[in-house]
Amino acid sequence: MKLKLCVICLLLTFYGTQASADNAGLHYINTRGVVRCGTPADNKIFAYKDDEGTWQGISVEVCRIISTAVFGRSDRIKMVQVPETLISKALETGKIDVMIGGLPYSATNEISTKAAPVDVVYYDRTVFLARDPGNAKSMKDFKGEKVCVVQDTDNLSRIETYNDRYNLEFKIMPYKTASQAKENFLLKRCRLFVGNSMLLQDMIFSTPAGLSGVEMLPETVDERPFYLFALKSNTTLRTTLKWIMNAVKLAEELDLNKDNYQLNIASRDPTTRNLLGGDEKLWKRFKLEPNWVQILLKERGNYGDIYNRAFGENSRFKLERGANNLQKNGGKIKTEPFL
Predict the structure, then answer these.
(1) Counted domains in the chain
(2) What CATH number is given to the structural domain containing 197?
(3) What is the C-alpha to C-alpha distance for residues 259 and 257, in angstroms, rounded to an integer?
(4) Residues 104/233, Cβ–Cβ less than 8 Å
(5) Angle at 122 between CA 110 and CA 50, to 5 degrees
(6) Which segments of 72-167 does DSSP mark as H helices, in order?
(7) Is 80 exceeded by the pLDDT of residue 52?
(8) Do 138 and 181 have their domain in common?
(9) Is residue 117 one of the residues assigned to a domain?
(10) Beta strands in the chain, from DSSP E residues, in sequence order
(11) What does pTM read for this prediction?
(12) Domain ranges, residue 156
């Protein structure tokens, strides 16, 4: 009987310790002194070094946000390229703390991986690159053409649905990786390449010589969100990241920027006061720097500033915000009060 009780106690201790390790919150980030952020391995637009050797891209921006919230400074980051098939393992083994994009949110991924979505980083469109589009006026002008697509992504199912819906008789050519699909498109084995606009933008900027006579078509297959992911079992970290991302969007919602945030620290509005750390209690409960939003606004800006720098008018892409605007401006970006 005593032996059985000992075994039970050991098992309870083991599983309790394991649960504690899984739900480690910010412990490993704080201990390490750096946030390790995963970024898609097949797309350099998300994270790349500019001519001066400085990291740029939306994954870098999000990683800097987290670093600012945890450490009060934006430079405690490490960017790690992670293929889509290894995202769950990278999170589970601690190779990365968070993953920015790279994994569609679906029922299959929800049940089969250790990665869980935290919040929407941005929305992207599924579009076509077309070779020699000429005077094509609609997708019917491409009826029967070969279409390159990456196999193990939801883009394959989306283009199949799109093809059936509009009776375009596409000859769909799936490839295992984005690099294989890109190579076959460049070798002219397909006239169309369907993918997320950021993947195709990466192709355009990284292989300009091989894309003469190629245009991105205005047609949208669909639009979907790209998420920030964290380890499913680390509920404390996921909750913290959720409110970190909400803070950046909420700052824009409240029209807070580098020029006016100091005037609002003592605001009578509790959401504004909590957000800026005028009342330090709430951010301290998350074990974050109480004034981190002030630091971020001064150095990096609010969500709108960050989007414009990564994708919009202050970037090389000049993409309109569209769905990436706040709901009050006709977009899909939602915020919650910080109370």
Answers:
(1) 2
(2) 3.40.190.10
(3) 5
(4) no
(5) 115
(6) 87-92, 107-112, 154-166
(7) yes
(8) yes
(9) yes
(10) 35-40, 48-49, 55-56, 77-82, 98-100, 115-131, 146-150, 171-175, 192-196, 214-216, 222-231
(11) 0.88
(12) 125-223
